Amino acid sequence: MAKKLSITLAGALLFLFVLTACGGHKGEVVESGTYNGTISEVNPDEREIYVKTPDNKTLELYFTDATNLTQNGTAVEFSALKVGQLVEVTVEKVGKRLDPLRVDIK
Fold first, then answer.
1. pLDDT digits 0-9 by tens, 5-41
2. Which helix (H) or strand (E) segment is 61 a member of?
3. 49 vs 88: CA distance, rounded Å
């Protein structure tokens, strides 16, 4: 009985460790569409940004090769993204993930 309890506790602790190590999910999943907001975080290593919308939602966006990033109508590199910038994003909901189709820096 004690051995079974120890194994169960060890499994639960391992699960919590893995969940914590992965960082969890910081963003909210919204319907496909176009949203305005402010960049609250930029992670160049992951090609990821977080966008805070006026209704206080946070969108977690991982850029793909298909993501169109522009500023003043001109294509720009990911390095142009900075915390505090206003952006308009068009996203496609894919399961519990948002794929950014277009990000326009305002």
1. 455 544 444 443 434 344 455 789 999 999 999 999 9
2. strand 58-62
3. 13
Q: Residue ranges per domain, the chain? A: 27-105
Largest CA distance in the chain: 67
Q: Assign 27 to helix, strand or coil.
A: coil
Pairing of strands 97-105, 68-71: parallel
CB 92 within 8 A of CB 50: no
Distance CA 83, CA 12 (A): 37
Answer whether 0.85 is exceeded by the pTM.
Answer: no
Q: What tokens appear for 24 in the block?
A: 């969890």
Residue with tokens 């794929």: 99
Domain 27-105 grouped into CATH 2.40.50.320: yes
- CA neighbor of 41 nearest in space, from 52, 50, 32: 50
Structure tokens given for 69: 């990033």
